[in-house]
Amino acid sequence: MMGQKRYAGFGLRRGACVLALGLMACVFSAQASTFAVLQQPALSTAKAQRAALLGLTRAGERLVAVGERGIVLLSDDAGVNWRQASVPVSVSLTAVQFVDAEQGWAVGHLGVVLHTEDGGETWHKQLDGERAAALAVQAAERDADQPGGAGNLVQARHMLDDGPDKPFLDLYFSDRLHGYVVGAYNQIYRTDDGGRSWQPWMQHVDNPQGLNLYGIRVSGNDLLLVGERGLLLRSTDAGHSFQALKSPYEGSFFGLLGTHGGALIAYGLRGNAWWSDDRGGSWRRLDTGIESTLSSAIELRDGSLLLASQGGELLFSHDEGRSFDKRQSRSGGTVAAVQQAADGSLASVGLSGVAADQDPRASGKP
User: Fold this and answer.
1) Residue 288 pLDDT grade (very low, low, confident, very high; cuts 50, 70, 90)
2) Same domain for 160 and 275?
3) Domain that residue 295 falls in
């Protein structure tokens, strides 16, 4: 399916709006046709805090946000003040994760994977769409004599011919060495050496239609993927293979939360969220009470759950999702990602940039 472009130019192209974790983010593309943005460092700008931002995480006590044009922002005071980091590309970044206070990765458009070893101060490129496509062809050529190998080789060559226009949309690293990046058209790559090398992993995933992969998360000993058209996949063998689960829903899932208690919440379009307490074997619908697309979910330090929507709604649950207390983000705008800061307060990012939502309930205070 890699060569059959269901959405022409899904990724970065002239005049396009691209889907990134359920949030429609319009991105510039005057130079995209030549992919020069893969070599152009992100422009330092005083307006970076108001740029469209799509990802937010913790690096120790630091907050790290990523977004359009390669912007990476750092805050060491719970989101009150931010400064821009040095980034070697100027493509939109969609997601970010740190495994500790120093080591982190970010992914984005044109198949970019970035790595930092200094808490996000500086970044270097580990992978882009050109290299990813070449790796896919090499792997397909090596396995061409295996069942289905000829078709896989055709798809890989289509991917190479298309150019590096396909975005990565999420990532998961278990430690400094082992991780995955996922994205459009069933793209999934695995590393076992911290990103120094990558292996195409598409043939390990039960996704024959080549549906977009929007999220990857761990829950207990399972690794799970979610995607478009209700796609749910689970690996019970440390990521060696992913099998499709029966889905309760035909719309897209944009993310997944695994709670410390072992439950799963898959969330997506029009306020849809689904709960499983048997590792994805069965699901029940959560009554979120909203119709906005859900864009982010976290478990807070007191064990309560928080779901955020691109409409700016914050949904708190203190009873494992049985009921929700709806509030509006103080930013007043879209929410693409939300994170609890080291002091217990909440920070969020969206199309209008960064915002801090001081919420005593998030820190467990009365």
Assistant:
1) very high
2) yes
3) 290-366
Is 224 found in the same domain as 115?
yes
The answer to whether residues 232 and 326 belong to one domain is no
Nearest to 97 by CA among 185, 188, 201, 194: 194
CATH number of the domain enclosing 230? 2.130.10.10
Q: Which phi and psi angles does 350 have, rounded to 5°?
A: -170, -160
C-alpha closest to that of 208 among 174, 191, 233: 233
Residue 66 CA to its chain's centroid (Å): 11
* Nearest alpha carbon to residue 152 among 202, 104, 114: 202
Cβ partners under 8 Å of residue 146, min gap 6: none
Please, which pLDDT band fits residue 11 given cuts at 50, 70 and 90? Answer: very low
Statement to judge: residues 190 and 339 lie in one domain: no
Taking the C-alpha atoms of residue 210 and residue 213, their distance in angstroms, rounded to an integer, is 9
- CA dihedral (58, 126, 180, 110) in degrees, to 10, reads 100
Between 159 and 17, where is the model more confident? Answer: 159
